[in-house]
Structure formats: structure tokens, C-alpha cells
Amino acid sequence: MPYSQIALDDTVRLLAEAAPEADQTGQFPWAGIRVVHQAGLLESTVSNRYGGKGGTLSDAAHILAALGRGDPSVALISAMTIFNHLGQATKSHWPDDLYRRLLAEAKERPLLLNAARVEPELGSPARGGLPATVARRTPNGWSITGRKRFVTGAHGLSHFLVWAHTDELSARVGTFVVPNGLPGIRVIENWKSLGMRATGSHDVEYVDVEVPAENALELVDPSVAQQDNRAHAAMNLALTAIYLGAAEAAQSAFTRFAHERIPSNLGHPIARTERFVTLSGEIDLLVSGAREIIFSALASTDGAAERLIRARLIAGRQLREAVQLAVRGLGNPGLNADLGIERHFRDVQSVLVHAPQEDTSILMLGRAAYQKWNAEEAARIERSPVIPVLKTA
Q: N or C of the chain: less Cβ packing under 10 Å?
């Protein structure tokens, strides 16, 4: 296990203390990120061959669920780095020297990595299409020009992983490692979301930003560069664990309020009333059920993308419903910022906004169901005995 449960609990407590202010200001949540960094969680999935703890995707999901209980915005920013280390552990797509230099930096300060893929014209790559952002050859490497949207943690990232096409005669598509702070980088502060406010998922513009040649990762022909939503299904499910954490925080706040609220006309906590016992049961069914769905699907070994996609959709819907039920059940107190449930309600609305979005995921399941039926029908026809037709005289 790449973490101590006691240290993780302390981290969650500190995140929860800083979360309300980060939500109100929308500023980059440095206080929370430093806590996660000091706990060593950003590098929890670094491979053993690099001296890391070798955390798995399931380990990452457990960490993200915990961080989500403290501050989902910090959890999401952290997830991008955690997943990138996991990617290197499984694919080794970074140049070794470059990656080792980044790990050395991580000992001194929070190393924050995130992909910059979505574009104003293109939209989400999960829906198909190739980037307009261009990487032009220079004597020493590449010059990057383009604009990206929804770059989570933009102000605090140490490196952007910019998806772009090259200006070569036979263009290629790939990811370019762009250190933050270089000339030509401009963060456009337009993140004004209902929830997840402290993620600072602003637009970022790159104008002739120069990076070394070795900072290009996985340059391939455009024909094989489309985002594979099925291949990313497990990681997308693990990301849902962040919102599981937010829903568990809402559940805890609901339960605490029910035990502390003692109306004078009742004479005992409302937690003893049948109505609140029933509400508590409904919330637990949805939240604890979502936890079981997420982690049992991640533990499955059949590798079926449809199972993972299905688990993400069911769990995500349950988490949204659970927090809505908690807010509705408490009435005015549930909408008060002091209790915190209204923040959890706003944050959890993003659970199925991440690519691939809900409609794309359902379309994938529908196509898979049709393909399965067609295959079974073809097999049935093939197995059916051929009955000869008798000729009459």
C-alpha cells in the first residue's frame, strides 16, 4: 500500500479545513496541494524501477476517494499527476532522462502534470477529431502555438502536456511537455463553474512556446491518434472516486447535523425520528452502493471496458442523487454554506462531466449491446441445422 492510513486521514482533515476558503476565492489551492505533496501522495504511483512505491490504479482510486472527502478540487488536480505517473509505470512513454529530472524536482516542490487537450473549436477529443494546436520544428526542438480549454490546475501546474500536430510534410500528432512559466504562455482566467471552483480549469494560450526536442512524447500518425475511450475506461472510473469522497463528506455532514439538531418541541435529536432514519438509509444505500460498484469493478480481471463504463455511470448517478437527497432532506440548513453540504452538492455535479461525457458513454454501451446481439444471432444461425427441402414428384 503506497500510503499510511493515519497519514491519509491527517491529510484529509487538513484539506477539509482549507477547502471552504479555496471554494470561495477560486484561487489555486496551494495550501491543500502542499499538504498532499508533503504526504508523498502525488508520487504514490511512481514505478518501483524509479524508486517509487508502485501504487496501482486501485490504490490511486482509494487515495482519490479520501482526498475527495477533504477537497475534491485538490483531489482532481492531484489525480492528473498521479495518473501520469501510473501511465509511465505501465507504458514507459517518457524519455528516461526527462522523467528522472522531473522526479528530482518533485523532491523539492509539488510536481504537477496535466494534459492540455480540449480546444475551443475541437471540443473534447473524446468525441473525435484532431488538435489545431501546432508544433513547429526549430533548430533545438519544437515551438508550440494554440489554445486549450479546461486545463485543470492551470496556474499551479509545473508542466503542461500539450496535445498538438506537427508541421512536418507528413504531420504527426503527439504530446509536448511544456514547463509552466515559459515566454508565450498565458492563462486566460475564464473558469466560472458552479462547483469544483478551486480547480482553476482555465483556458491556456501558447504562442511560439519553445521546448527541447526530447520533450515530445508518442508522436504518431494522425490515423492512430484518436482518443480511445474504451482503453481509458478504468482510469475514468477511478476518477469517479473523487466524487465518491465528496458524497461521503456530504453524508457525514448530514448525519452530524441530524444528531446535533434538537428541536425544543421534540426534546431529542432529529436523528431518532423515523423520517431521518429512513433518509439516512436511502443516502447510505446510494453512497455505499456506489463505493462497492466502483471498487469491485476496478478489482475485476476480465478487462471488459463496458463493465467499467457501466460502473462509472451507475455510481455517478447514485452519488449525485445521494447528495441531492441530503440537501433536500435538510431544507434550509442544507443550503447554508456553513454546513458544507451545499458545496458538496455543487462539486458532485461534475461527476459525469469529465470526458467521455454521459451521452458518449451511453452510446458506447448501446453499440456494444448491439454488437453482442449481432454476434450471438450470427452464432445461433450458424448452429442451426440445415433442413433439406424434399422435392415432390
A: C
What is the rounded distance in angstroms from the CA atom of residue 45 to the CA atom of residue 41? Answer: 8
Q: Which of 198, 191, 247, 241 is nearest to 33 (CA)?
A: 198
**Of all helices (H) and strands (E), which one includes residue 10?**
helix 5-25
Give the pLDDT mean for 362-372. 94
Strands 159-166, 113-116: pairing is parallel
Tell me the C-alpha distance between 175 and 104, whole Å: 22
126-173 pLDDT, tens digit each? 666 789 999 999 999 999 999 999 999 999 999 999 999 999 999 999
Whole-angstrom distance, CA of residue 346 vs CA of residue 19: 13
Task: Tell me the C-alpha distance between 223 and 73, whole Å.
Answer: 35
Neighbouring-strand partners of residue 123: 119
According to the model, what pLDDT value does residue 305 have? Answer: 93
Partners of residue 178 on adjacent β-strands: 160
DSSP 70-118: H-HHHHHHHHHHHHHHHHHHHH--S-HHHHHHHHHHHTTS---EEEE--
Domains belonging to the chain, first-starting first, are: 5-110 (1.10.540.10), 114-224 (2.40.110.10), 233-377 (1.20.140.10)
Contact 175, 217 (CB under 8 A): yes
Phi, psi of 116 (to 5 degrees): -110, 100
Average pLDDT in the 54-82 region?
A: 98
DSSP string spanning 18-73? HHHHHHHH----HHHHHHHHHTT-TTTT--GGGTS----HHHHHHHHHHHHHH-HH
